[in-house]
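=== RUN LOG ===
request id: a7f3
mode: sequence -> structure
chains: 1
length: 216
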Amino acid sequence: MKVFEMLIPMTIEGLKTTIGVFLVTLIFSIPLSIIVAKLRMSKNKAIANITGTYIYIMRGTPLLLQLMFIFFGFHFVPVIGFAFGRYQAIFIAFILNYTAYFAEIFRGGINSIDVGQVEASTVLGLSKTFTFMKVILPQVIKNVMPSIGNEVITLVKDTSLVYILGVADALKAAKSVSNTYSTFIPYIFIGFVYLVIIAFLTKILGNVEKRFSYYR
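=== RESULT ===
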């Protein structure tokens, strides 16, 4: 069918953007979120409040609005003399947004760990960094994996928002072909593609969860 002759190449090109945004966001936001979570728990009120405000703004406003603000906002502030490119704006918005969500998940996970483990590590002469990285963090990851998994799946679907900046992704490919041939088939096809991606990710997340299952 002519629909698929046009749809499949465009989908492949669009998936490069979808997967690229997904991977970059995940690679940067998870490590950053652990740092932000620790800063949010800081005994220094100024640091805790600044971090809390950042999290509040990122979680309290739509990702679509954040994309528009980061890309279009600086164009209307000529004093700054700098504007982000499309992909720069996309990566910054996605990383900042998901860092905030992941940070709250990790903060909850850290708070769920018995403080006695930290005290025991101190008695044994272990450093705070070693205790956190080798004792606390593995348990936290195990506890928060279901929540992290939900956000990862949401991230896959959120990548479709890049269309607002004129960037071609998998969903935009379906829209273009659908408009050309006046058919809903491209949307059904892309829906199936997303289901396959999410099924693959669910399997990976399940394996990671099993990897940390010995922390009970």
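=== NOTES ===
Residues 8 and 41 are 48 Å apart (CA to CA).
The chain has a mean pLDDT of 88.
=== END ===
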